Amino acid sequence: MSDATSNAAILFRGPITKTYPAASENADLTIADYSTMTKLSVRADPSSSAAQQLAAPFGSSRLQGTARVVGIRPDEWFVLGGHDDAHAVVGGLDTSGHVSVVDLTHSRCMFRVTGAQGPKMMEKVCGIDWSDAMTPEGAATAASVALVSCDLMRADEAGVRSYLIACDRSFGQYLFDALLDAGDEFGIAVSAQS
């Protein structure tokens, strides 16, 4: 499954080059390639005006409209979403002082794992405690997933447990297949990005 976005002469494809059977509508656990989602990194001092505007402390995330603002490190935030929505969030920031904004869309891949069995699947490939007490809705952290350094966010959809997993693009196909393998016993299926 390879998601593509076209803008005149620009064609951006996600890192997934294999084709997988489509998920049935009643699949309890799904994975989708969200690599074409806009991913902006904002670096700033935690006491800066920009950090206050982003309002997502380290280890947490929140929605601003349809964009997700993630406090992924003490001095770094991700802004994730549609191109216009993500750029609107960073476009309104006070960038005085030492503030940088870098578009990571093409260098990072992102997958969404959704379903009640997601924590059990993730426990097989990652040493994080996936209980609600440790990783509630909105939690954000960095950890190794199937031996790949990843940024992880819990971002439930319509009350269903869901995780966003981002890593360097070069590991995309390997990580996607490793996640599929980990979810096999739970009936994981590949779904299209929504």
Descriptive report:
It is a single chain. This protein is 17% helix and 36% strand. The chain is an alpha+beta fold and 194 residues long. The strands form three sheets. A six-stranded mixed β-sheet has the order 10-11-12-9-3-13, with helices on one face. Strands 5-6-7-4-8 form a five-stranded antiparallel β-sheet. The chain has a two-stranded antiparallel sheet with strand order 1-2. A hairpin with a 7-residue loop joins strand 11 (148-154) and strand 12 (162-168). The longest helix has 12 residues, at 172-183. It is globular.
Q: Helix- and strand-based class?
A: alpha+beta
How big is the Rg?
16 Å
- How many angstroms does the end-to-end distance come to? 14 Å
**Uncertain regions spanning at least 5 consecutive residues:** none
Oligomerization state of this entry? single chain
> What strand line-up does the widest sheet have?
10-11-12-9-3-13
H and E order: EEEEHEEEHEEHEEEHE
Instruction: Report the principal-axis shape.
Output: globular
Number of helices: 4
Helix content: 10-25%
For the secondary structure, the number of strands is: 13
Task: Report the average pLDDT across residues.
Answer: 92
Largest sheet: 6 strands, mixed
The percent range for strand residues is 35-45%
